[in-house]
């Protein structure tokens, strides 16, 4: 067995180079997941409960900034369980389970993450050879983000637009080998590398992946829900969204993740607040623990309560997930929309609240909270990513809103599912006649708020269709900015206005409408307004914010600067701006200290022995 000291002699990760951090991540991961394999051999974990074990490891201090093997467990295996038919599960699951293959999950592309029906990667069926031809028609079609794909995984689940007999049938999942199992070299027709440094999760080895007419057997299409027969006939799924199942599972798991991260952050901040003494409550007294300040308690205690609330919620959501999936197996799809809406809502709410609470815990520790050694900045980097991956929070909340508005519109015609049954009673005028300062009273109050907001949303939908007029004169635009700023903060501080001013409910409702109209009015001038700051690209130093809008080319150019991408060389143009792609790649490769190695040496030193069960 490897010992930690063998690699970097206890040097904290912050002081390692990019390549050393990758080696450290690989080494720690194969050691950690060899334990999982040992537990498998001893029957202490199985394909049905590995998530607790793996979840604990992935959130542990051993893999503190993520793992290049994380996606293998987080999405590659769940996707096979969720999307592959029995024959395919028999073929792939044992190899995935004992890590003789390492997988990732490649759905997001440079050009699309949220709108998955707009993904550009194509999988075109060739009946003559009984194969699918995978192709990336544009730079924006390159898969971008899949964890572990940069230098680690040799297989991945790829989500692509399925074409057969000249017709597109939308996105489907395929299991695809991307690297040679012996040499780890990218296979011909595969363009692959890592995307570069990120705000956090820098041990995850996120990658990019492009296909150049790459052929796979027909049987590599995951065919549990939809199929393509040998002659190219398409057999559609019972429900078009069953293909989205892996995302629902991960959103549910993320809620558990947030419990772990929030518990850690508030433990650090509360213990520190008991140790830290600062200032005197009364002159001449000894300095008091900062935990004695009400302001400090205001910052921290709600996080303790939230950690418990999220744990209870996560367990309830897990039960619902299992209930609904058992019904799906029996062909009953009735509660699928509710599960989707619930998973969207709870993933978005718990990640956003956890990110806010972790940042508040950091601030509550003063300067020492800003130290990497406090682990609070690292934890913030981990949780804030969760607001984006597995469905960007705004988009997921819109999915929940869509479900709630539809539920409201069918209030009288359809039986309500358990989680929204309260809408029936909350609609009744008599439901909340007075306010009681009890837990039940507050919950009833929020149920009324939910009901009224849904009614407002339904009403707004109608109103929004009536008036959209804009006349962009500078004076008018500046007035709009003043208007926006005032209405934004009035709505943000509504509780104070309701407490201290005679603002009425009707006025609040029209304030909300006015706010949304102002957003709409400003939209056509939004880019012009930031151009007016006249910030040159050299000052912005951002791949996303450059004046020319060439976001994707710049992202790829920056990715190519990573030293890890020098091995092996990329075989194709990546749409670089000046067209000098090969000269630039060679220049970059010559800067890499390891460019003599066609494969990162960690494959032979750690990965291959691990995959062959020799560690
Ligand atoms: C073991 C693990 C331990 C620890 C680690 C844990 C966590 C770490 C996890 C992750 C980090 C690492 C990896 C990250 C991976 C990724 O990020 S993978 C990529 C994730 N990407 C997304 O989530 C994309 C988000 N976008 C979407 O999901 C969809 O585009 C959409 C926004 C839902 C819209 O879809 P679409 O356009 O097809 O649908 P609409 O036209 O809007 O119609 C909506 C109707 O469809 C129904 N619907 C939508 N989605 C689903 C679903 N998933 N299931 C069921 N039903 C669905 C919806 O209910 C509407 O129905 P209707 O109203 O009746 O029409
Ligand atoms: C750390 C990390 C790990 C990841 N790992 C993986 C992985 O392993 N595999 C994988 O496939 N992907 C992965 N992703 C990608 C992730 O799934 C996407 O980033 C995410 O789905 C958001 O898509 P996007 O980046 O295209 O953002 P966009 O969708 O472009 O969002 C940008 C902005 O547009 C807004 N917006 C977009 N659509 C709408 C709409 N309809 N209505 C209103 N506003 C909208 C959003 O709210 C947001 O403010 C990862 C991402 C991160 C950060």
From TrEMBL:
Main location class: other
Location of the Acyl-coenzyme A oxidase N-terminal domain: 2-102
InterPro entries for this protein: ACOX_C_alpha1, Acyl-CoA_ox_N, Acyl-CoA_Oxase/DH_mid-dom_sf, Acyl-CoA_oxidase, Acyl-CoA_oxidase_C, AcylCo_DH-like_C, AcylCoA_DH/ox_N_sf, AcylCoA_DH/oxidase_NM_dom_sf
Cofactor(s) the protein requires to work: FAD
GO BP annotations, alphabetical order: fatty acid beta-oxidation using acyl-CoA oxidase; lipid homeostasis
Top-rank taxon, per record: Eukaryota
Keywords: FAD, Fatty acid metabolism, Flavoprotein, Lipid metabolism, Oxidoreductase, Peroxisome
Domain (Acyl-CoA oxidase C-terminal) ranges: 450-567, 569-612
Family, as annotated: Belongs to the acyl-CoA oxidase family.
Name used for this protein in its record: Acyl-coenzyme A oxidase
């Amino acid at each position: 067995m490897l010992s930690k000291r063998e690699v970097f002699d206890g040097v904290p990760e912050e002081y390692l180079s990019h390549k050393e951090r990758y080696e450290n991540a690989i080494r720690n991961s194969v050691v950690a997941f060899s334990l999982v394999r040992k537990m498998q051999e001893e029957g202490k974990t199985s394909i049905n409960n590995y998530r607790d074990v793996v979840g604990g490891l992935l959130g542990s201090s051993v893999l503190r900034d993520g793992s290049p093997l994380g996606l293998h467990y987080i999405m590659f295996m769940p996707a096979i369980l969720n999307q592959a038919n029995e024959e395919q599960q028999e073929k792939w699951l044992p190899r995935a389970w004992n890590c003789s293959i390492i997988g990732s999950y490649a759905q997001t592309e440079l050009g699309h993450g949220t709108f998955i029906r707009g993904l550009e990667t194509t999988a075109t069926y060739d009946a003559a050879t009984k194969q699918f031809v995978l192709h990336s028609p544009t730079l924006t079609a390159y898969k971008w983000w899949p964890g572990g794909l940069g230098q680690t995984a040799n297989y991945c689940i790829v989500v692509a637009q399925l074409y057969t007999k000249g017709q597109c049938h939308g996105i489907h999942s395929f299991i695809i080998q991307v690297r040679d199992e012996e040499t780890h070299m990218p296979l011909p027709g595969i363009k692959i590398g890592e995307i570069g440094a990120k705000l956090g999760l820098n041990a995850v080895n996120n990658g990019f992946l492009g296909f150049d007419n790459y052929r796979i057997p027909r049987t590599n299409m995951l065919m549990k829900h939809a199929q393509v027969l040998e002659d190219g006939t398409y057999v559609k799924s019972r429900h078009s969204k069953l293909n989205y199942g892996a995302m629902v599972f991960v959103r549910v798991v993320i809620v558990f993740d947030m419990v772990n991260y929030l518990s850690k952050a508030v433990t650090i901040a509360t213990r520190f607040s008991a140790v830290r003494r600062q200032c005197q409550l009364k002159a001449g007294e000894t300095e008091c623990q900062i935990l004695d300040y009400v302001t400090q308690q205001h910052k921290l205690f709600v996080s303790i309560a939230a950690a418990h609330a999220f744990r209870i919620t996560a367990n309830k959501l897990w039960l619902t997930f299992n209930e609904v999936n058992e019904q799906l197996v029996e062909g009953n799809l009735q509660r699928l929309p509710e599960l989707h809406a619930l998973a969207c809502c709870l993933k978005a709410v718990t990640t956003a609240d956890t990110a806010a609470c972790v940042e508040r815990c950091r601030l509550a520790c003063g300067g020492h909270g800003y130290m990497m050694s406090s682990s609070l900045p690292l934890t913030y980097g981990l949780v804030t990513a969760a607001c984006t991956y597995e469905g960007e929070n705004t988009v997921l909340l819109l999915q929940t809103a869509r479900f709630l508005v539809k539920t409201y519109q069918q209030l009288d015609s359809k039986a309500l599912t358990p989680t929204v049954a309260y809408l029936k009673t909350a609609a009744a005028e008599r439901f909340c006649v007075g306010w009681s300062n009890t837990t039940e009273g507050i919950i009833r109050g929020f149920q009324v708020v939910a009901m009224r907001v849904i009614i407002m949303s339904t009403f707004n939908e109608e109103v929004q269709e009536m008036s959209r007029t804009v006349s962009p004169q500078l004076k008018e635009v500046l007035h709009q900015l003043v208007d926006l700023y005032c209405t934004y903060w009035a709505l943000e501080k509504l509780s104070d206005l309701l407490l201290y001013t005679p603002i009425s409910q009707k006025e609040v409702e029209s304030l909300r409408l006015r706010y949304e109209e102002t957003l709409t009015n400003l939209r056509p001038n939004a880019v012009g307004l930031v151009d007016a700051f006249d910030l040159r690209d050299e000052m912005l130093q951002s791949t996303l914010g450059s004046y020319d809008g060439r976001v994707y080319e710049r992202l790829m150019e920056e990715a190519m600067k990573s030293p890890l991408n020098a091995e092996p060389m990329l075989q194709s143009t990546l749409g670089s701006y000046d067209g000098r792609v090969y000269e630039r790649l060679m220049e970059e490769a010559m800067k890499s200290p390891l460019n003599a190695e066609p494969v990162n040496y960690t494959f032979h030193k750690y990965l291959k022995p691990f995959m062959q069960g020799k560690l």
